[in-house]
Hints:
With 507 residues, this protein is α/β, with parallel strands linked by helices. The chain is built from 15 helices and 19 strands. The chain has helices spanning 6-22, 26-38, 42-61, 90-102, 151-154, 168-175, 197-207, 214-220, 225-238, 323-326, 346-357, 399-409, 422-430, 443-447, 487-499; strands spanning 2-5, 71-79, 82-85, 114-115, 122-123, 131-137, 142-149, 158-162, 187-194, 253-261, 268-275, 281-286, 314-317, 334-343, 372-374, 413-416, 434-437, 450-457, 466-480.
Amino acid sequence: MTVVTKDDLIQSIADSLQYISYYHPIDFITALNEAYEREESRAAKDAMAQILINSRMCAQGNRPICQDTGIVNVFLQVGMDVRFETDISLEDMVNEGVRRAYLLPDNILRASVLADPAGKRINTKDNTPAVIYTELVPGDKIDVHVAAKGGGSEAKSKLVMLNPADSIVDWVIKTVPTMGAGWCPPGMLGIGIGGTAEKAVLMAKRSLMDPIDIHELLARGPSNRVEELRLEIFDKVNSLGIGAQGLGGLTTVLDVKVMDYPTHAANLPVAMIPNCAATRHAHFVLDGSGPAELEVPKLEDWPEITWEAGPSSRRVNLDTVTKEDVLQWQPGETLLLSGKMLTGRDAAHKKIRDLFAEGKSLPDGVDLNGKFIYYVGPVDPVREEVVGPAGPTTATRMDGFTDMMLEKTGLLGMIGKAERGPVAIESIKNHKAVYLMAVGGAAFLVSKAIRKSRVVAFEELGMEAIHEFEVQDMPVTVAVDTQGESVHVSGPKLWRSKIGKLPVVEI
């Protein structure tokens, strides 16, 4: 009989969540670096360089890889010969570990979990509760997989009930382009096949916690149908040309994981969940000897990559930029932004919409006329920081607010991650505005361009409050120009035709 104490489990959960906030799995770094070396698309290569540099900085500074420090997923396999020394439940122990991790003063992690999801959506302040799955298995140990899943990639989860004769590969290849770039490729695809609907989704999520090993499989060849599917989907998804951050390129996925389970004769459930460039998961075993010890990776495991804006990059002063200036910007062009910008995400946009509906004006300190808004919810600063990691959030969530913002506030442009939808692009074109893209998964690197930060409105929203940032040489890409041309349409289309393994189709 193994005895595991309450303190050991709580401490292990807390330590693992801190660990994965700033250490990428080394297999991910190795695979991403190999993709970076192979990449021929300049835009995609630049994006991967920023992700790799950001990862190394986070490993050195013990700060979050991404501002979205995720919702916690915990998979527990509890040996039936384990006894807990505790006065609280298993879920309470796990949640206490989450609470301690996210409130640790030396590396505060962003609390993103909201209670009453269909109602008031109130932040729980400590990122609890976790999503916990528990199995009782033979043995005298506790096997634990911990992950912090970002909202952008989780939002792209898909479930379908196919007919038994349908092609799984065809469904995947048809579906991946509809997911856009909000899941921050290059990453992984987890696919669950069989069981029932909820079993398929659970397998898809669990598969993402296995190490990247597709190149080993490529070298030895498949030995069963699941491995054949992995290789076929890996090849065909990368042939779509979506590329890093959806900008077009050779690598969209670094691996494809597949788990299956027996299913009903009338059914073929298939779930697909992507993992983003901020891949965060850890595995440990508790055997009664104390809390888990997670091996600290060596800094030399990270490639030493430098990134500089090219000589053709355009420097932009946000305090003096005009509509006439914006008309000159070209799709795919790199800009270096300096000056003041405001921030705002979903909750802030909703509050602004409600104010306008009531005939009220914007709060004092919020003047968007001729200005840029950055879609971001930063991590709280620690020590000497001006702001914590502050990478972009998925811009498409703000599409429904875009016309209102451009028409009623005089907003000149927006900054976020991934593509904009047709409605937003049409509004951008009509108002001669612009959408700029920052690299998702490079939040700590982006934060180093922010020289000053202060909250100017809606302080009660926490990380979703409106901030004023003063930035210096913040790198962004012109993703939608004033004519409505989107690099997230033109880039993948170009690279699909270059790769040439699939017919060029409109998406």
